[in-house]
């Protein structure tokens, strides 16, 4: 187990480096001169010369990459072209909001998927099963932003139950925070729930057919312990893997949902930056987005290894 | 011979080796029995027709302006209402199908045309080349799909074609991996055969065995990914990073009409429904295909 952990942590390094390389190349390939891009309207000949020297733009690409990486590690992620604030500060302020949204959405999707999937599996081909599957099918086919708009229309505009937009930090008021996050987290979590419901149902159906379940039943155990204790644990293995893979979609979806509901997270920050061509901010946005994804994948892999003791260092390709 | 088949059948083994019963014939029959998949297919066909015949079917042009009736709710003259500029939403929705179909299909084509050769090369030659190609695939996969699509759109200026390129690139690793896996499996067999027949393995022989081997997962992945591509294109357009005006696109129209939500929610809802039903159709069909092509399912 410790070997596996070590191996995965070591694998992290080339992956992270690969990510930084892509971001670096992205910044270089943006149409236009990098320095002009980075300075925008604050452009001045002197500052430009200074920046060129710092970035080593006359030197080979590899050297530039190295210098840029060093800047990052030192915590210098550049300054916003528009506000001249250090980009890292903004990122650190906004990241917890997005993380909160993602975690809450994941909770929503699990809270929906687990009961729905279990019920559908233990009562196959009944109305419960069919309705769950129909709703699930609808859920995976609807774009998050459209679901967000519909929820917004119904609950904020028509019924007026929930606030129209904005964000209240948890530290200020947990209740208000929840009220503001409710629609975004459902918009983001429901399509994921749909996918997971189908998966839970399918895995559980498979597991319930296996011999050890028949044995457990023959032992005289009630249906509930059989399903919940024995079958579910194994059915959860592919579910956890997929749930982990879903995080990628959650991060992507969060970008859109934050824009729809004006949630001040990394997603809306990034889109704003792109539209305003504030390239240092764009760079930070992409970097953070990818790194969060990489870290979460690592955590999921480790969780997977904890749940299924058969997984080892030599697991091979996912 | 027929006795052996009867025994196989009684054991519940899918006997795709039965005379005149290819996997595809069985799959096709199974597919025909699944009504939801057929509904999906029907909608897809309708959609493609709408996209191709948009100029003929749509009551007005997508950019035709009716300033008198701007922002009006659904009516007999404008069944889906009109937008801020007075354009007929129904016509724009019909024309919008072109963008969705174009992106959905061509991003797929791009991914397949680049992914399959990469997978073949990586699997066939192995060693450093394999490692190199797979590392690049891993780097692509290290990014969430949507984020990577955004990155590519930042580098290339926003346009429908660039969305196709972005989505194509993002999907390459999936196909490369499927094909590479198939190559690795077949490579073993071929060596055994080669050892026996003393013949040198011919790349063409490999191709004749690899592709049929991985055709099923490729077909299923492709059908299901069209839905995702359509959602991603719509999302990118919604954010302003995809299809640009005045080209009608469901995502962009939804965003443009969003500011009128309190006055006229319908013109926002209809483009959204268009996306929903399109993706639903591809998902239903893809699901049916997956079940039909699954060799583990009994007849």
What does it look like?
- The complex is a heterodimer of chains A (318) and B (299).
- Chain A is an all-alpha fold.
- Chain A contains twelve helices and no strands.
- In chain A, helix 5 crosses helix 8 and helix 11 runs antiparallel to helix 12.
- By secondary structure, chain B is an all-alpha fold.
- Chain B has a single domain, classed as Orthogonal Bundle (MetI-like fold), CATH 1.10.3720.10.
- In chain B, 72% of the residues lie in helices and 0% in strands.
- In chain B, helix 5 packs antiparallel against helix 6 and helix 9 packs parallel to helix 10.
- The radius of gyration of chain B is 24 Å and the shape is elongated.
- The interface between A and B is large, with 45 and 40 residues.
Which protein chains make the most extensive interface, counting residues with beta carbons within 8 Å of the other chain's beta carbons?
A-B, 45 and 40 residues
State the domain count of chain B. 1
- Sheet-strand content of chain B, in percent, reads under 5%
Largest sheet of chain B: none
Number of helices of chain B: 11
| Total count of helical runs of at least 4 residues of chain A | 12
Query: What is the string of helix and strand elements of chain A?
Result: HHHHHHHHHHHH
Determine the structural class of chain B based on helices, strands and strand pairing. Answer: mainly alpha
Low-confidence spans of chain B: pLDDT under 50, at least 5 residues? 8-18
Computed CA radius of gyration of chain A, to the nearest angstrom: 24 Å
> What is the CATH superfamily of chain B?
MetI-like
State the name of the first-level CATH class of chain B: Mainly Alpha
Distance between the termini of chain A: 18 Å
Estimate the helix proportion of chain A, in percent: over 70%
How many beta-strand elements of chain A? 0
Helical fraction of chain B: over 70%
